[in-house]
Every structure is written in C-alpha cells, then in structure tokens.
Specification:
CATH architecture of the largest domain: Sandwich
Distance between the termini: 66 Å
Helix content: 10-25%
CATH topology of the largest domain: Ctag/Cox11 (Pfam 04442)
Largest sheet: 5 strands, mixed
Number of strands: 10
Shape: flat
Number of helices: 2
CATH class of the largest domain: Mainly Beta
Number of domains: 2
CATH superfamily of the largest domain: Ctag/Cox11
Radius of gyration: 22 Å
Order of helices and strands: HEEEEEEEEEEH
Strand content: 35-45%
C-alpha cells in the first residue's frame, strides 16, 4: 500500500470514528446524567420516601416555553417549603390559545445541578407527551420528594433551595389526534 492510500484510509477512518462519536454523544450524555444526577437530572420512584426529616427545604418552580411554542405555561405556585423526605405535589398550568390542537413535551432541569440526584419524581406530566385542544386549559400534577440522603452529601447538604425548571416544546401530534384534527376541517 502506498502513502496516498494509507493517508486516504486513515482520513476515512477518522471521519467514520468522529461521525460515530457524534451520533453516540447524546445518548451517552443522557445516560451519564441519569446515572450521576449531573446536569440537574432527577431520579424517579414509584412511592414516597420512608424517612421524613425535621429539616426543611424550599422548592422553587419555573416554567418556560420554547420559541414558537404557542402555549401559555406557568407553575400554579412559585415556591413551597417542605420537610426533606416529605412527599409534595405541585401543579403546572398550560393553556392552548390557538384554534388547533397542539402537542407538547416538557424537558426539565434542576438547580443547583448537584441537587438533581436527590430530587425524586414519583409522577410527572413530563413523563408523557401532552395534547391540548383549542382553548383548552389544564392543570398538570407533579408528585415528588427530596431524598433524605441529601443531608449526607458533601456538596448538596448545604442546599437551602432547589429550583425545578420545565420548558415545553411543540412536538408532532400523535397519529390519533392528527387524524381527528383532519376530520374536523
């Protein structure tokens, strides 16, 4: 094999490798954040904590929509204080002011980032896509608790406030809703 062929194959190998790494970056980063809580990723559970501490923590709720998302979206209550380990419930309100059905999915983040692994969701509207009909207004629940293990973490034990932020972005309507919307026109 001559030098030009080696160079060509090496370049092609680098391009394929870089493409594969770019393709795998998002799922690997998502997995890493879910496992470590890095980047404000939360935990999920099927039930509340078995332990409730005397120490309280404030939870702040934030809501935004992605540019172009026509919904109005806000937390019903901006801040609550609860005991660490106590199960809390919060509601977010969404309103579709348009004349068409709009589907949305919520992404979230927790600040400070290192508190994310201790914020545990039991049930959340963010687990599934939401479809609002024209003029529909809904209140969507979030059931959660702050894991008592937060008080033993080197960094997180000093946290007094946790902010949970949701951003709704528009997604394609599910097929059933798309067909129903076409049938009404």
């Amino acid at each position: 094999m001559d030098g030009k062929t080696k160079t060509l194959l090496s370049t092609l190998g680098v391009i394929v490798f870089m493409g594969a790494m770019a393709w795998a970056a998002v799922p690997i980063y998502t997995w890493f954040c879910q496992v470590t809580g890095y980047g404000g990723t939360t935990n999920t559970a099927t039930a509340g904590s078995d332990t409730v501490l005397d120490r309280t923590i404030k939870i702040r709720f934030d809501a935004t929509t992605e540019a172009g998302m026509p919904w109005e979206f806000r937390p019903v209550e901006r801040e609550v204080e609860l005991k660490i380990g106590e199960t809390g419930i919060a509601f977010y309100e969404a309103y579709n002011p348009t004349d068409r059905p709009v589907a949305g999915q919520a992404s979230y983040n927790v600040a400070p980032f290192y508190a994310g692994e201790f914020f545990t969701k039991i049930d959340c509207f963010c687990f599934t896509e939401q479809v609002l009909q024209p003029g529909e207004r809904v209140q969507m629940p979030l059931t959660y608790y702050v894991d008592p293990a937060i008080v033993d973490d080197r960094d997180a034990k000093f946290v007094k406030h946790i902010t949970l932020s949701y951003t709704f972005y528009e997604i394609d309507l599910p097929e059933d809703d798309r067909q129903a919307a076409l049938g009404t026109n």
